[in-house]
């Protein structure tokens, strides 16, 4: 374990689910009778077993995390993410298996966990920091830094029960981020913070990691996992189903989310009666590693991207007009389909993108067998580098966004830039300079 921060071995967690309240009471009676009449213990045990079933929140989890590594845990609701974090943090005991953790652990497992709502923020800081292992002198030394990070002002001397959810999580995170943990565990708590606070938290993540600490993060925000994590794992129904690079795991998580309500497309070609034998020399081939899913109501047949007036190419020039063409075949009627595109960097961060809904250019109702071609014409302003093209045909339904067909990393594009600029997008500003007359007073200072 000396070379590991966390080791999880064959961890399972089961919860007993009673068939009814009466079943629980009956089990207590049988348990007592079993001790009073040992001859009937086997029958009592069988009767007890029929009154409940075990629900496994986790089953057979194995995981090793190195010191200084940031690991993201993603998965749908009910997949066991929070249960695993609680077991790692030591607040929950596993049913089977073992967990070893090296060093001081700071955990923010849920909103305001460890806070007494009747105490003031100041009192809770001292209480919570003491629980996490700081001495009174250390807390006094770091109190001002904690207060500045939380940024809740005069509310620090008000009872926590009067705080908003955002204020609670600000204070809770400020405490755990200032105790110099060896292992920092965060479970979804940052979801209630505003954008400025989240940015501050991510900067703190980096500072903590630079000191060699380990970060374990549970979140539904896959972009956060991509930005701050070295590795990610996907949980599904209590099992570890995938582990690897954060971008690949984010795509796997999204694919599984869509597969829950839609049919995963294995081969979109050949699922329609439309004649698809026509070959367009102007279309571009997909990348071999393209990931796709959807419910099959629509299929993105072809795509191309090029600098305006030129042949399709994966080599584009920043600062010039770009034309993206996408052809979609509809295998079922759709009331209001939306065609979208996005350009992402190699770790999955969105660089730019749009769709027909954002641009207030509705496709309108389409019938089965119809083919629609959408063209996006825009000026590319990205800095030089490599990015990936993603495409999607979706629709807003009663239960939210429905994915008909989505393609991740359908093409890898090389961007060339003819000038330097700061950031990822060239604003290409018009610059005007005015020479103003110098006043006598200012001239005397020269």
Spell out the blueprint of helices and strands:
Blueprint: E1 6-18, H1 21-36, H2 41-49, E2 52-65, E3 70-74, H3 81-89, E4 96-101, E5 105-108, H4 121-131, H5 136-150, H6 165-176, E6 183-187, H7 195-210, E7 214-218, H8 222-228, E8 231-236, E9 239-244, H9 246-261, E10 291-293, E11 298-307, E12 315-317, E13 321-330, E14 337-344, E15 350-355, E16 371-379, E17 385-397, E18 400-416, H10 440-445
Parallel strand pairs: 3-7, 3-8, 5-6, 6-7, 12-18
Antiparallel strand pairs: 1-2, 1-4, 8-9, 10-18, 11-13, 13-16, 14-15, 14-17, 17-18
Q: What portion of residues belong to β-strands?
A: 25-35%
Amount of helix: 25-40%
Mean pLDDT value: 83
Strand order of the largest sheet: 5-6-7-3-8-9
The tally of beta strands, per DSSP, is 18
- State the low-pLDDT regions, or none: 261-280
Radius of gyration: 28 Å
* Shape summary: globular
Helix-strand string: EHHEEHEEHHHEHEHEEHEEEEEEEEEH
- Cα distance, first to last residue? 68 Å
Strand count, sense and barrel status of the largest sheet are:
6 strands, mixed
Number of helices: 10
User: Which structural class matches the secondary elements?
Assistant: alpha/beta
